[in-house]
Backbone:
């Protein structure tokens, strides 16, 4: 590991919004999306630029945010959701635009696309933001080759649909349920699993009595039709902004002598849920942080015990903080160790719900929040290794600041991530021992990947802080206000082995 070193780097040319993306590699070409919907195709070995595409964003879309988290590949095309709520397909060889469809007017819905689409069979599936706006969320599928709309699943049921009865009055029309992160696909079952965000308004729930399906849920959809096969709601009637949009980790395990298909789902609330992904049946929910007070626990069927109420107009301490017991950057499961690796943040917030009248497409938070330390008086952050089913902790590492980079585990029992100070880090996945560190100059908000070209293994790491979450760290860690911005992709490798003829 000591010989690991950068072999090339690429500057995207704009540091506003940082570099939030997960790179992709296919046939020796690395594809990267930067802020403002700018796409680059690079030689994965040398970093040479093959082509670049700059999407023409209307100026009025920029206040909705500039960060983009990823793209998708398939059928010789590069697919990208845009900050003005379009879906675009580019020719992967040339970067030329092939088709461009509007999902919904972004000003009407107060939503856009920041996450990577998901290519499933002949379709491109994409979710939208808007969970903090007065908006009715959905998941969309389009024909990959043409952009023709295939199906739409509304995350808030309408009249006559199952779950409609869980909404009071007309609150369903602007009920939230954003689908702002990417889903997962099980080809054996032909099911798409997608996490659904919080109901709107975020903190004031008196005008939407009921469980508010399918917010804070995992939904399993038929990939061909978008029809709901099952759902599991983790937090009925959420008033904490603990949405369920994060990654769904699909693992197959032997339990009680039988192979079982599981879905592991870390959530902002501080819990990780374990579900049978063939049925949606609850198996377990375990803590991945300590600072939790919104619920005392769960019964054998997953029903909540001792929920914390939030009186309107009064301030209540809620743990964890509404920004999450970790951010959206994903965990990692290693089939080698059998463990799930995850981040954790110990923090809380003082929440004051307030009445607010919704206006379609406008912010609909209905309350104020102030970050606060947990009951022990100390903000803290960590990386952990867990048994994914029981939640038994295998090891933990305290970190100086919250990690806002995804985790990457490898078949060589290594664990990679990066921190907000700009350090690219490698750990022993079995013990948590730090093995390597390299400072890239700016913290990481995106996701590292590993790939191989001509037998040589590389690790690509986005460097460049950005997003509301990292901008807000300074309210808890004042020195974070001085962390450097950037937007550079670093690619690392071990020295090439030289073969000498004799």
Residues:
């Amino acid at each position: 590991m000591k010989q690991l070193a950068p072999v090339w780097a690429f500057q995207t040319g704009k540091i506003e919004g940082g570099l939030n993306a997960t790179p992709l590699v296919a046939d020796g070409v690395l594809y990267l999306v930067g802020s403002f919907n700018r796409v680059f195709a690079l030689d994965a070995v040398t970093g040479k630029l093959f082509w670049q595409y700059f999407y023409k964003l209307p100026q009025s879309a920029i206040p909705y945010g500039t960060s983009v988290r990823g793209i998708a590949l398939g059928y010789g095309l590069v697919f990208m959701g845009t900050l003005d709520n379009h879906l675009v397909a580019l020719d992967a060889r040339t970067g030329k635009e092939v088709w461009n469809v509007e999902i919904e007017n972004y000003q009407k819905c107060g939503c856009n696309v920041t996450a990577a689409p998901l290519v499933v069979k002949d379709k491109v599936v994409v979710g939208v933001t808007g969970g903090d706006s007065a908006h009715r969320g959905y998941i969309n599928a389009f024909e990959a080759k043409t952009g023709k709309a295939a199906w739409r699943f509304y995350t808030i049921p309408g009249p006559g649909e199952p779950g409609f009865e869980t909404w009071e009055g007309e609150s369903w029309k602007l009920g939230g349920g954003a689908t702002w992160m990417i889903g997962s696909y099980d080809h054996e079952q032909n099911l798409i699993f997608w996490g659904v965000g919080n109901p709107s308004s975020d903190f004031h729930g008196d005008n939407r009595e009921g469980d508010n399906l399918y917010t804070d849920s995992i939904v399993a959809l038929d990939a061909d039709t978008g029809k709901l096969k099952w759902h599991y709601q983790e937090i009925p009637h959420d008033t904490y902004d603990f949405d369920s949009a994060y990654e769904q980790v699909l693992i197959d395990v032997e339990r009680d002598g039988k192979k079982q298909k599981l879905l592991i789902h870390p959530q902002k609330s501080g819990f990780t849920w374990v579900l049978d992904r063939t049925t949606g049946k609850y198996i377990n929910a375990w803590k991945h942080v300590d600072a939790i007070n919104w619920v005392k626990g769960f019964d054998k069927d997953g029903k909540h015990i001792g929920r914390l109420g939030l009186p309107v107009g009064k301030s209540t301490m809620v743990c964890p903080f509404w920004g999450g017991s970790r951010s959206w950057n994903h965990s990692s499961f290693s089939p080698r160790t059998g463990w799930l690796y995850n981040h954790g943040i110990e923090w809380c917030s003082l929440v004051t719900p307030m009445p607010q009248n919704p206006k379609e497409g406008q912010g609909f938070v209905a309350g104020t929040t102030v970050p606060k330390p947990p009951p022990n008086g100390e903000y803290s952050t960590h990386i952990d290794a867990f048994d994914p089913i029981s939640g038994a902790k295998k090891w933990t590492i305290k970190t100086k600041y919250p990690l806002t980079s995804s985790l990457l585990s490898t078949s060589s029992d290594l664990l990679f991530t990066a921190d907000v100070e700009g350090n690219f880090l490698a750990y022993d996945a079995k013990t948590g021992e730090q093995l390597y560190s390299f400072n890239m100059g700016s913290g990481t908000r995106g996701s590292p990947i590993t790939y191989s070209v001509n037998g040589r293994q590389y690790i690509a790491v986005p460097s460049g802080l950005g997003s509301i979450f990292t901008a807000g760290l300074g309210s808890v860690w004042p020195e974070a206000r001085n962390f450097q911005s950037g937007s550079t992709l670093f690619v690392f490798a071990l020295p090439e082995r030289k073969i000498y003829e004799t």
The chain has two helices and 37 strands. The chain has a mean pLDDT of 96. The radius of gyration is 22 Å.
